[in-house]
């Protein structure tokens, strides 16, 4: 029991550290039911994946943070990228985190995610590309990026569009699941006006609860 409590404190500290880093365009929250699972979404702001809204989960090892296994980022929709497996939809972060240790943090993993989506060309210089058994990566995307950029851009544009079309779908049954709602001026307009009038955050939060919209500040 003591070990579990210590782990929960360390996970909370990791979350606070990540919040202080303010990773651009990325929002995450631990699951209500299992702190080893986090829900996330990334709004890509630059590069060829720009305007993509990609949901993902982060799964921490059972022994986190006392482990050498890198936490697993798994996308909820297809992301055509050399470092994202088309079957499992998992990110291959071995170039940055060959082995996880006490110096590694989740905010670093998320910044790496932002980096490879905004600058996928860095994948071309990975020494792991030469391995015959390149499990965990998308060989088709890598070859297309290298030799046929036009087709690569077409595939990327398609997955970006699909991510936008699926943004309102509910993908997790959890009290902390990240949920998006279509704009409703009679409901969400209240928050917009309060934000414009610089009302204190606690006032906005109280209104959020009372209107029961599922939209959080």
Written description of the protein model:
The chain is α+β, with helices and mostly antiparallel strands. It has a single domain, classed as Ubiquitin Conjugating Enzyme (Roll). It has 6 helices and 4 strands. It has helices at 2-21, 106-118, 139-147, 149-165, 185-196, 201-211; strands spanning 26-30, 37-43, 53-59, 72-75. It has a 4-stranded antiparallel beta sheet with strand order 1-2-3-4. A hairpin with a 6-residue loop joins β1 and β2. α5 runs antiparallel to α6 (201-211). It is globular and about 55 Å long.
Summarize this structure as a short list of keywords or feature phrases:
6 helices, Ubiquitin Conjugating Enzyme, 217 residues, 4-stranded antiparallel sheet, alpha+beta, 4 strands
């Amino acid at each position: 029991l003591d070990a579990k409590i210590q782990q929960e404190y360390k996970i909370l500290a990791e979350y606070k550290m990540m919040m202080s880093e303010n990773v651009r365009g990325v929002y995450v929250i631990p699951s209500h039911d299992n702190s080893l699972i986090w829900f996330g979404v990334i709004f890509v702001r630059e590069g060829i994946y720009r305007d993509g809204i990609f949901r993902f989960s982060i799964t921490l090892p059972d022994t986190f943070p006392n482990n050498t296994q890198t936490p697993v980022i798994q996308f909820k929709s297809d992301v055509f990228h050399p470092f994202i497996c088309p079957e499992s939809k998992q990110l291959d972060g071995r170039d940055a985190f060959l082995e996880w240790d006490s110096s590694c943090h989740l905010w670093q993993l998320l910044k790496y995610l932002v980096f490879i989506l905004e600058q996928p060309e860095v994948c071309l210089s990975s020494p792991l590309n030469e391995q015959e058994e390149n499990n965990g990566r998308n060989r088709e995307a890598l070859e297309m990026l290298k030799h046929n950029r036009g087709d690569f851009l077409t595939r990327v544009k398609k997955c970006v569009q699909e991510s936008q079309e699926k943004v309102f779908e509910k993908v997790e049954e959890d009290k902390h699941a990240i949920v998006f709602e279509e704009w409703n001026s009679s409901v969400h307009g209240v928050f917009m006006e309060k934000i414009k009038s610089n009302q204190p955050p606690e006032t906005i939060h109280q209104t959020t609860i009372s209107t029961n919209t599922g939209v959080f500040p």
